[in-house]
Design brief:
The longest helix is centred in the last third of the chain and has 17 residues. The two termini are 40 Å apart. Strands 3-2-4-1-5-6-7-8 form an eight-stranded mixed sheet, with helices on both faces. It contains twelve helices and eight strands. β7 and β8 form a beta hairpin. It is elongated and about 70 Å long. The protein is of the alpha/beta class.
Length: 314
């Protein structure tokens, strides 16, 4: 069964992205139209626009900058909602452009070890499966490690993704030590000549110190086999959690040295603006975003397309 993803044409991906972000863009767009259609752009309107952007999870600093940009040269004038959305899209794009960076696989690191972390339910295991499909489609030899040893379902899920994508899987029984699995996985991937090793980890809340300590141990153990590993540490964030994503990014960065972000479930929320707040606060590369369950619904992050889809700008 060949389940490797095909390259999606840009337009159809943009259509899916726009559809996925509809709840966010609709809530922003309706509020903007309501505000600017009734009166001139005075101080009160600009303040209400700023509050609207904060409610849309774009973050306080970003909201203030965008409100200032909207007011510049337009004070006490009538403006159209299309004009405001255009300015909003341009300002959002400015924030996102520096962080829209692809995940670069260092060919000299063999295997290139990717550690995937995040809280329960963020979509880590599914993301790993979709990444495996992408890398296999590029002709790379991929190995997956079922490091979420707390949940038997996660181990089985990863094995199914391995079968679907043609990746080999290293797994132990539920309750096994995740750090020892990490050691075995890096060793086995080296021996097998794998190009990429992707290691799943148990979902852990950022405020559970014992679980975060286990994550530190996994990183230490990987380094015993390969001092440069892990070569990428991806934090998978669920867009529906809104502001809580900021504390997750902060704590996981401190513990595991996050190198990049994957944002999932953007199609299930009106909180898509949180990606803008994350970019502004942390400046971490955003490698991929997901707007659906399909294998091709995880795509490389495109800042201009995201800014237009988020704001409803034409």
């Amino acid at each position: 069964m060949n389940d490797t993803p095909k390259e999606t044409p840009k337009q159809s991906w943009f259509a899916r992205l726009t559809g996925g972000l509809k709840r966010t863009s609709a809530s922003i767009g309706a509020a903007i139209s309501d505000l600017v259609s009734k009166r001139k752009l005075d101080a009160a309107t600009i303040e209400e626009l700023e509050e609207l952007l904060i409610r849309a999870d774009l973050g306080v600093d970003v909201a203030a900058r965008i409100a200032e940009a909207i007011g510049a040269g337009r004070f006490d004038k009538m403006v159209s909602d299309a004009e405001v959305k255009g300015i909003l899209a341009a300002e959002v794009e400015k924030v996102l452009i520096p962080v829209a960076r692809p995940l670069v696989i260092d060919e000299s690191a063999k295997p290139f070890c990717i550690l995937v972390v995040g809280v329960n339910g963020s979509g880590k295991t599914t993301t790993i499966g979709k990444l495996s499909a992408r890398f296999r489609a590029e002709g790379r030899k991929v190995m997956l490690a079922a490091g979420d040893t707390f949940r038997a379902a996660a181990i089985e899920q990863l094995k199914i993704w391995g079968e679907r994508t043609g990746a080999s899987v290293i797994a132990k029984t539920q309750g096994s030590d995740a750090a020892s699995l990490a050691f075995e996985a890096v060793t086995a991937a080296k021996a097998a000549g794998a190009d990429i090793l992707i290691m799943d980890t148990a979902g852990r809340l950022q405020n559970r110190t014992e679980l975060m300590a286990e994550l530190e141990k996994i990183v230490r153990v990987m380094k015993k086999v390969d001092a440069t590993a892990p070569h990428a540490v991806l934090l998978v964030l669920d867009a529906t959690v809104g502001q809580n994503a900021l504390s997750q990014a902060s704590e996981f960065s401190r513990i595991a040295g996050i190198t990049g972000l994957v944002m999932t479930k953007l199609d299930g929320t009106a909180k898509g603006g949180i990606l803008v707040a994350l970019a502004d606060r942390f400046g971490l590369p955003i490698h991929y975003i997901g707007v659906g369950e399909g294998i091709a619904d995880l795509q490389s992050f495109d800042a201009p397309a995201f800014a237009r889809a988020l704001t409803g700008a034409a």
